[in-house]
């Protein structure tokens, strides 16, 4: 498993409307789990390193470790137990473990681009890039089946001149070096295709096959 390639996939923007809109906005932990599964091919795991249930002191806390291959990140969760019965304590236990999980994957910058507009820390100029779109808007790819030729772009594998559609698809790949690399869709390596927003890739594939 290529750890660096996995991390690039984890950092990618999620599909539109993934963020559950509230005061701070949040991404459900199931979404993070799905991204981990897809990026690692299932080669990740979660370990509860510490679980402290203390009704007398009125709190429950957990430390959770998430592994990707040989690498790991720790996260924590905490909840108030004041006045809670056994059922509510059980629910709180699940809650703090989920909090710890999300806290751990957050350290890989999962969801940062999607949540930046809800977070104070994103106002820091050093993080301004998180608010920049790295995929074209849906309106820009609705007519992606149109095949306009581009004179100055050719596939580095076969030499075929790229269509505007293929150029648009390359622009949808995060961290893709457009100045040095150009591929027609047939020769675009799979690891680049996996970086493309699934909605855009599926739309492109469907329209190419129509």
Salient structural properties:
single chain; 210 residues; alpha+beta; 3-stranded antiparallel β-sheet; two-stranded antiparallel ribbon; 35% helix; 19% strand; elongated
What's the count of strands?
Answer: 5
Main β-sheet, spatial strand arrangement: 1-2-3
Number of helices: 8
- Gyration radius over CA: 21 Å
Specify the overall morphology. Answer: elongated
Roughly how many Å apart are the termini?
A: 35 Å
Main sheet overview: 3 strands, antiparallel
Specify the helix fraction band.
25-40%
Order of helices and strands: HHEEEHHHEEHHH
User: Structural class of the helix and strand makeup?
Assistant: alpha+beta
- Low-confidence parts lasting 5 or more residues at pLDDT below 50? 134-151
- % residues in beta strands: 15-25%
- Mean model confidence by pLDDT: 80
């Amino acid at each position: 498993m290529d750890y660096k390639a996995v991390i690039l996939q984890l950092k990618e923007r999620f599909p539109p409307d993934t963020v559950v809109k509230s005061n701070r906005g949040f991404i459900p932990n199931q979404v993070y789990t799905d991204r981990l599964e897809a990026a690692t091919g299932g080669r990740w795991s979660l370990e509860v390193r510490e679980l402290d249930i203390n009704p007398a002191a009125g709190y429950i806390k957990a430390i959770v470790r998430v592994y990707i291959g040989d690498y790991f990140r720790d996260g924590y969760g905490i909840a108030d137990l004041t006045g809670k019965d056994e059922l509510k304590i059980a629910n709180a236990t699940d809650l703090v473990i989920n909090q710890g999980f999300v806290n751990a994957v957050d350290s890989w910058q999962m969801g940062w681009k999607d949540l930046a507009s809800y977070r104070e820390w994103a106002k820091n100029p050093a993080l301004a890039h998180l608010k920049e779109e790295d995929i074209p808007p849906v309106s820009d790819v609705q007519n992606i089946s149109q095949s306009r030729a581009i004179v100055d772009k050719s596939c580095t594998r076969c030499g075929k001149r790229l269509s505007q559609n293929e150029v648009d698809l390359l622009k949808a790949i995060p961290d893709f070096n457009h100045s040095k690399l150009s591929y027609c869709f047939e020769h675009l390596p799979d690891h680049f295709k996996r970086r493309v927003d699934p909605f855009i890739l599926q739309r492109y594939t469907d329209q190419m096959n129509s």
